[in-house]
Amino acid sequence: MIKGCIFDLDGVVVDTARYHFLAWNRLARQLGFEFTEDHNERLKGVSRMASLEILLEVGGLFPDDSEKPALAAQKNQWYLQYIEKMTPDEILPGVAQFISLLKSSGKKIALGTASKNASIILQQTGLLTVFDSIVDGNRVTNAKPDPEVFLLAAADLNLNPMECVVFEDAIAGIEAAHRGGMKCIGVGHPSTLLQADKVIPGFINADIHLIDF
Ligand code: BG6
Ligand code: MG
């Protein structure tokens, strides 16, 4: 039986993908090339430095490794300007209600995200006290598709991986959940999230039986 639910943050609980896109796009334009929304799809669930590598590859640029931290820091500075203005209205529809439903059914709730900015986003959206465990990019060394982030969340909840289900919008996140021995519910399009055990378009009217396996 599922006793714990682990939520990815970006694209599952809040729609921050557009802010990541605006900041990466601005960096690309500064470097002299165009970075499209299609390109941005490749960055979902991917860590900040790995995202920079993809962006540079798209632009056909190969700067020295020593220049990369400053580029990532510039992008993050612009991204922070967006997320520091976030409000509870930017919680994705139905997710807060679904988490309340899970909690009233006695389920434990964790956050499992690659983001190092999770605490600002949670604070701005009023979600800081909702989770029994928060595992973000500051607590792990191995990025998704490595299962470290979800295994740490399960351990925080005092549950076995097989007692947990992960909610993810990224292919790398689904692989991470499965490598950790957990079921995974994809949030998005079935055509993209082929490997998920189930796929939902979003959380509006999501039912508690969703986590029956
Ligand atoms: C993931 C996002 O949740 O976090 C990625 O899907 C992002 O797009 C990654 O690159 C790292 O986020 P941050 O906020 O630490 O740069
Ligand atoms: Mg995500």
Condensed summary:
The chain is α/β, with parallel strands linked by helices and 213 residues long.
Order of helices and strands: EHHHHHEHEHEHEE
Task: Tell me roughly what share of residues is in helical segments.
Answer: 25-40%
Give the termini separation: 8 Å
| Unique ligands | 6-O-phosphono-beta-D-glucopyranose, magnesium ion
Strand order of the largest sheet: 3-2-1-4-5-6
Average pLDDT taken over every residue: 96
Percentage of β-strand residues: 5-15%
Count of strand segments:
6
Number of domains: 2
Q: What do we call the CATH homologous superfamily of the largest domain?
A: HAD superfamily/HAD-like
Query: How many helical stretches?
Result: 8
State the major sheet.
6 strands, parallel
Low-pLDDT windows of residues: none
Class by alpha and beta content? alpha/beta
Radius of gyration from the CA trace? 17 Å
Protein described:
- With 213 residues, the chain is of the alpha/beta class.
- Helices cover 39% and strands 12% of the residues.
- It contains 8 helices and 6 strands, in the order βαααααβαβαβαββ.
- The protein has helices at residues 17-31, 37-41, 48-59, 68-83, 95-104, 118-125, 148-156, 171-179; strands at 4-7, 108-112, 133-135, 164-168, 183-187, 198-200.
- It has a 6-stranded parallel beta sheet.
- The longest helix has 16 residues, at 68-83.
- It starts with a strand and ends in a 13-residue tail after the last strand.
- Residues 8, 10-12, 44-45, 169-170 line the site of magnesium ion.
